[in-house]
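Working notes for the structural subgroup meeting. M.R. asked for a predicted model of this chain before we commit to crystallization trials. I am recording the input and output together here so anyone reviewing the notebook later can reproduce the run.

Input as submitted:
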Amino acid sequence: MPEGKVFLDTNIIVYAHDLSAGRKHEVALKAVLDLWNSGQGILSTQVLQEFFISVTRKIPKPIEIRGAQKIVEDLLEWEVIINDGDLILASIDLHVRYHCSFWDSMIIQAAIKGRASLLLSEDFSDGQTIRGVKIQNPFR
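Returned structure, recorded in token form:
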């Protein structure tokens, strides 16, 4: 893991808990475990909400609600960025400037607010840096 804080997009945490995801499961699980050990992981309320819905409804073998709730409870030990009004307004600015979806700009802005040096996601341009946050696709 790199120096500094690392923000995880929803897909990384979902793959870490989706046993049917093959290589993506292995890579994501290693990233999550490394961040547990280093204490450098950051999430947002949006990531936790999307994670809960994804693992209880969208993966091939959904996790039971109470099991998913326990995972969310554990992840709340990490630094969690709250999506407040200022973050929403700043995300709109990112949305306009970088032409990404509003929801993606919320993720990026949360990483910026949390002073992450790295954002792990498969959904953004690998290698791009936005306002000091480098985006990396761990599956490449």
